[in-house]
Amino acid sequence: MSKFRTLDDLGDIKGKRVLVREDLNVPMADGRVTDDTRLRSAAPTISELADKGAKVLILAHFGRPKGARNPDMSLARITRPLQDVLGREVTFIDDCQGDDAADAIAKLGDGSIAILENTRFQSGEEKNDPALIAAMAKLGDLYVNDAFSAAHRAHASTEGLARALPAYAGRAMEAELKALEKALGTPEHPVAAVVGGAKVSTKLDVLKQMVAKVDHLIIGGGMANTFLAARGVDVGKSLCEHDLTDTAVEILDAADKANCTVHLPYDVVVAKEFRSNPPVRTVNVHEVAADEMILDVGPNAVEALGDVLKNCRTLVWNGPMGAFETEPFDAATVALARTAAALTTGGSLVSVAGGGDTVAALNQAGVADEFTFVSTAGGAFLEWMEGKDLPGVKALYAE
Known about the structure:
By secondary structure, the protein is of the alpha/beta class. The chain has two domains: 7-172, Phosphoglycerate kinase, N-terminal domain (Rossmann fold, 3-Layer(aba) Sandwich); 187-385, Phosphoglycerate kinase, N-terminal domain (Rossmann fold). 37% of the residues lie in helices and 17% in strands. The model has no long low-confidence stretch (mean pLDDT 94).
């Protein structure tokens, strides 16, 4: 695959209308943004284009309005919060296609910034409708995609426009793609992957892909119980997909053939009920009682996994090791994350993590800033780990 174009390839853009796809789908409560991570992530691209004299026209979705106008999902609500993050004026334009939008854009001065109305108010957005793509493309001279988290969707504003106008990756998209290439495209071996989370069923494709690409596969969370059961361990009342044990055996066999070492916990933290700080025991996996459930990986296994990471050069992480939202079952995730962070800051490990729960877990451990790269994308990060082409990314590469 040839190289994707970035803002460095733009040339003189003074007075040019640049349609910039951002992810402004931020959580809100009582009319206020409760987490502005995505707005801050969008800021470098928006500011750079405005500083170069472009008319910056931001395209984004908000919520799931299903192709109809809904005032509760209007991007007018994001205008002020974005203005506060950027420290410069942001105009709101009440449509993302059509003559009224074109007239409003024509009145903008060079270097100004505007948010166009929610792309998902258009019924053609999620269908990647050629008529909508053409109508949107009329509003711009160039297209920049800075929303990796929406890149797994082939929508009009993520994929269609990239084919209708000269297309470039924004700074956040560029950082994401470079990190992903470093972690799984052409990584330095040995490579480890941590794959956690509740269910094997949601990560089957990831697990199958990983055993062929990495040297060490560390399985945590509820899905580890399914693999333990597949190896004949009685996991008591633990969350476990007993109907998938045959699939787990297939994945273990595939790992053997690919010389990938699969790491499952050999000591675990168990409790009879799932709540904050219940009575717990740390036991060997073969000592789990019939009325107990496994809720975290034990300290001996975590120490051994830390030793595995010390011998690796690259780490990809998706999903927690235990039920990390509830104390004390965050201990394994926090301990392993801190080991990975220390190895990263020490220069021996490239660490890339992604997915909503993963980001929350790394923040809880206080080490998100010490990883090489942390992706806030959920579905797109997972599909990338599954080895799938992301339509919004593919369209940015020069043919």
